[in-house]
Specification:
CATH topology of chain A: Arc Repressor Mutant, subunit A
CATH superfamily of chain A: Winged helix-like DNA-binding domain superfamily/Winged helix DNA-binding domain
CATH class of chain A: Mainly Alpha
Helix content of chain A: 40-55%
Strand content of chain A: 5-15%
Structural class of chain A: alpha+beta
Largest sheet of chain A: 3 strands, antiparallel
Number of strands of chain A: 3
Strand order of the largest sheet of chain A: 1-3-2
Number of domains of chain A: 1
CATH architecture of chain A: Orthogonal Bundle
Oligomer: homodimer
DNA sequence: CTGTATCCTTGGGGATACTG
DNA sequence: CAGTATCCCCAAGGATACAG
């Protein structure tokens, strides 16, 4: 187990979790991650449908941030009408896998709620 | 793997993760969790020191929310000066364990950053 | 279809002072 | 020591319109 006030944490992170939290901290990011983990190569409009309640603007900005964080990749096909497919990078897949125990905890908790 | 648009998700949660995210979503909550996982029975002032940057007000409100969520327990001793000790419930410990892979992901990512 | 561009709102969190 | 009580701020997110 890592130490909280570990010497050498000059990057502003005291443990690995908060570094991860910065990446998945956006309001809808884990849902987007989950959607792409369930089925990759999803299109923009598809994601909008599968993540109910999100607006175009927020979906777009979240996707862009996740791209910048190296967990989502974007493939644009030069067609008309335009087609864009989103998927997970290797790192995104590993993140998604790392999220599974947390998801199990949430499911379990809901069962007993 | 759970389905995103699972029928029967009338509680507003589409998968287990977002239920978990609601619990750990506060800005400092994972750090508090981590601190109590490392060493339970910590006192208020101790937590304030070990979670650098947090204010009294936010620490107090976070602790109260985590208590309400059933992951933190609070024991007040009737002494003067007052003494209060915070720890994790069973559920809090399980949550903390479920967070470990995520922490590992964050640490790994920092190594390669 | 896949997005920008604007404008606006809200509540989570910060600063500070105070109390039992 | 372990917290409340106030006041305040601002960035994340929402609504809507428009564009290539």
């Amino acid at each position: 187990m890592a130490t909280l006030n570990r010497p050498g944490a000059e990057d502003g992170h005291v443990c690995g979790i908060d570094a991860a939290m910065e990446v998945i901290g956006g309001k809808w990011k884990v849902l987007i991650l989950w959607a792409l983990h369930e089925q990759p190569r999803r299109r923009f409009g598809e994601l909008r449908r599968v993540v109910p309640g999100i607006t175009e603007k927020v979906l777009a900005s979240h996707l862009r941030e996740m791209e910048a964080d190296g967990i989502v990749d974007r493939v644009a096909y030069d067609e008309v009408p335009p087609r864009v497919e989103y998927g997970l990078t290797k790192d995104g897949i590993r993140l998604s896998d790392a999220l599974e125990p947390l998801a199990a905890w949430g499911r379990e908790r809901r069962r007993h709620a």
